[in-house]
Design a protein that fits this description.
Layout: E1 2-10, H1 14-25, E2 30-34, E3 50-51, H2 62-72, H3 79-99, E4 113-121, E5 126-132, H4 138-152, E6 156-159, E7 161-169, E8 172-180, E9 186-196, H5 217-224, E10 229-230, E11 235-242, E12 247-248, H6 252-255, E13 259-261, H7 269-272, H8 282-294, E14 306-309, H9 315-321, H10 323-333, E15 342-351, E16 355-356, E17 362-364, E18 371-377, E19 382-383, H11 395-416, H12 429-440, H13 447-461, E20 465-466, H14 468-485, H15 499-523, E21 532-533, H16 541-544, E22 546-554, E23 557-564
Parallel strand pairs: 1-2, 1-9, 2-6, 9-18, 16-19, 20-21
Antiparallel strand pairs: 3-5, 4-5, 7-8, 8-9, 10-22, 11-12, 11-15, 13-14, 14-15, 17-18, 22-23
Helix pairs in contact: 1-4, 1-11, 2-3, 3-11, 5-15, 13-14, 13-15, 14-15
Length: about 575
């Protein structure tokens, strides 16, 4: 079955819906291909807020937000991206308000703002109220609001369609192949412009805040085709994952005054970030938590976690401003945050790296920023690079709005002057062959077993702290897992709702993005942001102030090229908080 639309967006999270909406506003015929019903997308799990220098609570400026973004990213952030972002996110938040998003309000009627990790005033001198929020369900509200607007603009949705191929021929993007879950059929999609907004890949790790669907599908598909993935070594662990499950407790809890404590009851962040303490950037807080545990100050019978203490806050703050935090703690752990501290440890959360793009979301294929015509990416799937080596809290929701809008506008304008490309049945061949091979395999390997081994070993060898020895070990483990993956088999041979087949395809994607991450981490012999090499503990601006572009050569083999960081008004300095 074939379909034709001027702009096709892959993914219906915040980035996909923002892209689709702004492309439709430009007059393009837009469709969204999504593996989930849109309002089930993972943006709905984002809790704390959107950082924007509105200045509603106290003085704030976009320049301060830009500075925090660059410093938080450990100076790997491209400063042109940070400037565009810090300016345009203000307008994006106000536009969301005009669309009807129910932000919390101040007594004067303006949008309420709270403090958040790494956000400061006066160039780092003190925390600032910058995160616009709707209780601790901000992502949920964004998703609902954008989806309503997309319906209003008559955007076509193909729900529960899994993209299995992006057709790139002669260096040009021409269309997509997608597997329809309800029927098992492969569909061909013709497009003048394709925007990838398919989210991250946190499911490579055992303990993660990410939904089961975040398996890096499109990153892996482009990586297989010889396109690079940028800065994959930088993967963020969010400090406050509900221990031991990894379910996220928003940074907004610390923004409202929550305190991290060790077994001695100490507010240990005073040691690591004396100025802004518990509101330091996520990479710094996550490492501090691990160090407290490692040095014997962990909580519980196994001394393997710390706690988030909210008991000193007024009950109405916890119940009204942090309803999800209280609900999750009570439901999953039987812990009441009003009366006792909540067990937490870092959880795999966000990919700073991904598909390299320009400031308008155009996918690039080399260190010279050569564009792939008709191909775009936005949101967590992309690497613009706004977040550098470490994303500040709230900047993901801002990112998907600002760069989703930019990608949508540019894709629609590109489509106006472009032609459709001829696609035939032969373009289904690669996807059909992959699916048939899995369905017909008589191998003995099982998807669930391989996936569990992948997630555990990635957690052990390539998470918050890394060494060359552990990463080299993980390279060999991945080679073995990829070899075993060729011998997987599934029990369900049917066509309709074959979720076992989907999980088998997703395991392939997880293995490939893991390969790009681990090779990139082994290659970067320094510590910067979320990439902490214990054998190379210092940041090395002389050799490593550059972006990594990882290319797949063959199974288990990766080559690298490098792209300079776009510097500007902020020269790299030591990162102190």
């Amino acid at each position: 079955m074939a379909h034709r639309h001027e702009v096709i967006v892959v993914g219906a999270g915040g980035a996909g819906l923002a892209t689709a909406l702004y492309a439709a506003r430009e007059g393009a015929d837009v469709a969204v291909v999504t593996k989930l019903y849109p309002t089930r997308s993972h943006t709905g799990a984002a809790q704390g807020g959107i950082g924007a220098a509105l200045g509603n609570v106290e003085e704030d400026h976009w320049e301060w937000h830009m500075f925090d973004t660059v410093k938080g990213g450990d100076y790997l952030t491209d400063q042109d991206a940070a400037e565009v972002f810090a300016k345009e996110v203000i307008e994006a938040v106000l536009e969301l308000e005009h669309m009807g998003l129910p932000f919390d309000r101040l007594p004067n009627g303006k949008i309420a703002q709270r403090r958040f990790g790494g956000h400061t005033k006066d160039w780092g001198k003190a925390p600032v109220h910058r995160a616009a929020h709707a209780a601790d369900r901000t992502g949920h509200m964004i998703l609902q609001t954008l989806y309503q607007q997309c319906v209003k603009h008559n955007i076509t949705f193909y729900n529960e369609f899994h993209v299995t191929d992006v057709i790139v021929e002669d260096g040009v993007a021409k269309g997509l192949v997608a597997y329809e879950l309800a029927t098992g059929e492969l569909h061909l999609f013709q497009a003048k412009a394709i925007v990838i907004a398919s989210g991250g890949f946190g499911r490579i790790y055992k303990v993660t805040s990410n939904a089961y669907t975040l398996t890096g599908d499109l990153q892996a598909i482009l990586y297989r085709k010889g396109l690079p993935l940028e800065d994959m070594e930088f993967y963020q662990f969010h400090p406050t994952g509900l221990y031991p499950l990894g379910i996220l407790l928003t940074e907004g809890a610390r923004g409202e005054g929550g305190i991290l404590r060790n077994a001695l009851g100490e507010r240990f962040m005073e040691r690591y970030a004396p100025t802004i303490k518990d509101l330091a950037p996520r990479d710094l807080v996550s490492r501090a938590m691990y160090l407290e545990v490692r040095e014997g100050r962990g909580v519980g019978p196994k001394k393997d976690h710390v706690v988030l203490d909210l008991t000193h806050l007024p009950p109405e703050v916890i119940e009204k401003k942090l309803p999800d935090v209280t609900e999750f703690s009570r439901i999953y752990l039987g812990v009441d945050p009003l009366k006792e501290p909540v067990p937490v440890m870092p959880t795999a959360h966000y990919a700073m790296g991904g598909i390299p793009t320009t400031l308008w979301g155009q996918v690039i294929k080399d260190e010279n920023n050569t564009v792939v015509p008709g191909l775009y990416a936005a949101g967590e799937a992309a690497c613009v690079s706004l977040h550098g080596a470490n994303r500040l809290g709230t900047n993901s929701l801002g990112d998907l709005l600002v760069f989703g809008r930019r990608a949508g506008i540019h894709a629609a304008r590109f489509a106006k002057d472009a032609d459709y490309h001829e696609l035939t049945e032969k373009h289904l061949g690669e996807s059909r062959e992959r699916i048939e091979r899995i369905k017909n395999s008589t191998g003995k390997e099982k998807v669930a077993v391989l996936r569990a081994e992948l997630q555990q070993t990635m957690m052990d060898n390539a998470s918050v702290f890394r060494t060359g020895e552990l990463l080299a070990k993980q390279v060999e483990i991945l080679k073995e897992l990829m070899d075993r993956y060729r011998r997987i088999s599934i029990d369900d041979k049917g066509d309709a709702y074959n979720t076992e087949l989907v999980e088998a395809l997703e395991l392939g994607y997880l293995l490939e993005v893991s390969e790009a991450l681990v090779h990139s981490a082994l290659n970067r012999t320094e510590s910067r942001g979320a990439h902490a090499r214990e054998d190379y503990p210092e940041r090395d601006d002389v050799n490593w102030l550059k972006h990594t572009l990882a290319y797949k050569v063959a199974d288990g083999k990766v080559t690298f090229r490098y792209k300079p960081v776009v510097l500007g008004r902020f020269e790299p300095k030591a990162r102190t908080y």
